[in-house]
Amino acid sequence: MKRTVNVLQIAATYMGTIVGAGFATGQEILQFFTRFGYWGTAMIAAATVLFVWLGVKMMLLASEINAKSYEDLNKVLFGERYGRWVSHFMLVVLLGVTAVMLAGAGTIFYENWNISYQAGLLITMFGSFLLLRKGMKAILAVNAVIVPLMVLFSVLVMSQTFQLPEADRFLTLPTDRPLWSALAAPLLYTAFNLSMSQAVLVPLGAEIKDRKSIVLGAWVGGIGIGLLLLAGHIALSAHMPGVTQYAIPMGGIARQLGSGVQLVYTFLIFAEIFTTLIADIYGLTLQLQQRTNGPRTLIILLILAFCYFTSQIGFGPLLSTLYPLFGFVSIGWLYLIARQKKLQIP
């Protein structure tokens, strides 16, 4: 029973960490898979294999070296000296990504719930602080609630899509994109999302001592991510090319299903942003605590304060500046994880 609980917690946290705001809006699925037409389904299958294989490797590595933070893993991958520099870079970028998530939460409050942007930021920060004081248990609990809701929403959208005459378009949708860009898509998508998620998956792997639970949890989580990607891809393909006009493609589909579904969907987008936010802050806190030996509560407050002031720049400018930058490092990180065979602990 304990192993089953561990497997489900790992799987839910894995899915919740990967299935972030970009996934929930549909933009990531559209950009990395659906725009490649009938190639998209095969590319999702490739991405699923990568999520299972590399997710297992990353969490097992973290468990074997008993990593206190993602910096310990980077030292194994890049060596003592370069691993520290990569961790410095990731610290800066993760701070920026966390600010992006906070700004996104404030935007949802303002655009959908008629609450001011600043009030939305403060409410989100307060909720984050309360949960983060409870550590990894809070992250596991939040994902245990949010991930099933996301799965239910995906099932609802799928059931509606299969009633449309265009339901099978994911198998026939034409594309003018070159094949090489389609083949690169699952690699880029997996690299970007796994390198971002190490802030929480590395300490999770270190905390779960049972190797079998880690392997099974990564398998269930990786396959779950693939199924959610496929569900979104099928729904978006049925509404192509009109769905590309929406900034939030899945929101455009949800709007057609009624105001109740749209309300639930808006909540899910916020929840996905929130889970990514607390996961990133948790990982950053562990790294800074390892470096400074400072009290956890103070570090959490300082990170939240930094993100609050940075989020005044706005959601759009932060997103367009930081994400491409992080993508370059992600490819190198993914390559080193993939080729890691025998551990050489520094």
Automatic annotation (TrEMBL):
In the UniProt record, does the keyword Transmembrane helix occur? yes
User: Which domain of life does the protein's organism represent?
Assistant: Bacteria
Residue ranges spanning the membrane: these are 7-24, 36-56, 85-109, 115-132, 139-159, 179-202, 214-236, 263-285, 297-315, 321-338
InterPro entries xrefs: YkvI-like
Keyword Transmembrane helix part of the UniProt annotation: yes
Per UniProt, the keywords (alphabetical) are: Membrane, Transmembrane, Transmembrane helix
Q: What is this protein called?
A: Membrane protein YkvI
Organism this protein belongs to:
Paenibacillus thailandensis
